[in-house]
Amino acid sequence: MNSSDNIYLVGMPGAGKTTVGRQLARRLHRQFIDADHEIEVRAGVKIPVIFETEGEAGFREQETRVIADLAKQSNLIVATGGGAVLRPENCDAIKKSGLVVYLRVAPRILFDRTHHDANRPLLQVANPMMRIEELFTQRDPIYQDVADLVMTSGGGSVFHLVTQVERELRKRCAA
Ligand SMILES: Nc1ncnc2c1ncn2[C@@H]1O[C@H](COP(=O)(O)OP(=O)(O)OP(=O)(O)O)[C@@H](O)[C@H]1O
Ligand SMILES: O=C(O)C1=C[C@@H](O)[C@@H](O)[C@H](O)C1
Ligand SMILES: [Mg+2]
Predict the structure, then answer these.
(1) What ipTM was reported for this prediction?
(2) Distance (Å, rounded) from C-alpha 122 to C-alpha 85?
(3) How far is the CA of 14 from the centre of ligand 1 (A)?
(4) Which residues are registered as beta bridge partners of 101?
(5) Starting at the edge strand that comes first in sequence, how are the strands of the sheet with 149-152 ordered?
(6) Which of 39, 54, 106, 144 has its CA 20 to 30 A from that of 151?
(7) CA 63, CA 90: separation in Å to the nearest integer?
(8) Is 44 annotated as a binding residue?
(9) Nearest C-alpha to atom 11 of ligand 2 is from which residue?
């Protein structure tokens, strides 16, 4: 990769894309953009409201527009939405414009991190653990396929994970 290419974090809800992305950006002196936040700013409402008013399909349209715009920029660290990889056009856009890092986390840990949070509409179901397992089964192969770098993380600290990701990225470019 070129040192100015974007770095995209992909992974399941609760994988740590926002948390890790923000800290990584500070270390690498890059701008951090959270695609979910960008969608909310443009829409003027929170993601659950977009799901309520326009459905998941409407949300995905907005997500694709945001990703296409971010892919035209450079030097960014982007936390993508958990489902961004579901559209092949989004995968193409991120692969062409940067390096893709998959934060791979087991469903049980994802559940522990997300089950108190109502901001993830797809997890507002009777059995969120089962939903997370279903989503993981569906998406894990897609995340692996799109990723240049897979970082499996478990019970370690955010600091440790950010350090590992930074080290791997520095190996790949003069970041
Ligand atoms: N490596 C880690 N160890 C422990 N807790 C973590 C780790 N990474 C993230 N967390 C915590 O897990 C929660 C979810 O993380 P975060 O919001 O960054 O995930 P996300 O991948 O951006 O999710 P979403 O796709 O829903 O936006 C946060 O409370 C965060 O502090
Ligand atoms: O996993 C998903 O499909 C989603 C994850 C979030 O980041 C948001 O992009 C939205 O809630 C959809
Ligand atoms: Mg996030």
Answers:
(1) 0.96
(2) 15
(3) 4
(4) 9, 149
(5) 31-34, 76-79, 6-10, 98-104, 149-152
(6) 39
(7) 9
(8) no
(9) 120
Rounded CA-CA distance 160/167 in Å is 11
Residue ranges of the chain with pLDDT lower than 50? 175
Nearest ligand by distance to the CA of 136: 2
Nearest Cα neighbor of 100 from 4, 10, 31 is 10
CA angle 125, 117, 144 (to 5 degrees): 75
Q: Which of 85, 109, 99 is nearest to 158 (CA)?
A: 109
Measure the CA–CA gap between 159 and 65, rounded to whole angstroms: 32
What is the predicted pLDDT for the residue at 175?
47
By three-state DSSP, how is residue 31 classified? strand
pLDDT in tens, 52-101: 999 999 999 999 999 999 999 999 999 999 999 999 999 999 999 999 99
Find the helix or strand (DSSP H, E) in which 27 lies: helix 17-28
Walk me through the domains of the chain, giving residue ranges and CATH numbers: 6-164 (3.40.50.300)
- Residue 14 near ligand 2, beta carbon < 6 Å: no
What single-letter amino acid sits at 154? G
Q: Which residue among 122, 132, 133, 135 has the greatest number of ligand 2 atoms within 8 angstroms of its CB, and so is best to mutate? A: 122
For the chain, helix (H) and strand (E) counts, in that order, are 7, 5
27 is in an annotated binding site: no
Report the C-alpha gap between 6 and 13 in whole angstroms. Answer: 21
